[in-house]
Amino acid sequence: MISVIIPTYNSEKYILDCLNSIFSSTYTNYEVIIVDDGSTDNTINFIKNIRNHNIKIYSCNNKGPGFARNVGIKHSKGKYVFFVDSDDTINSDTFEMLLSEMKGNDIVIGNYKIIYDDGTIEKFITPLDSSFNSFFESVTIWNRLYLKSFIVDNNVKFNNIYQGEDRLFLAKLYLLNPRFKVISKSVYNWIRHDTANTATLTHLHTKDRFYNQVNCIKSFFELLINDVSIEERELLFDHLRYSCVYLMEIYKEVNDDTCNLDLLLEFADLLEFDKNKELYNEIFNKKWSDKDV
Question: Domain containing 251: what range?
Answer without folding.
Answer: 207-284
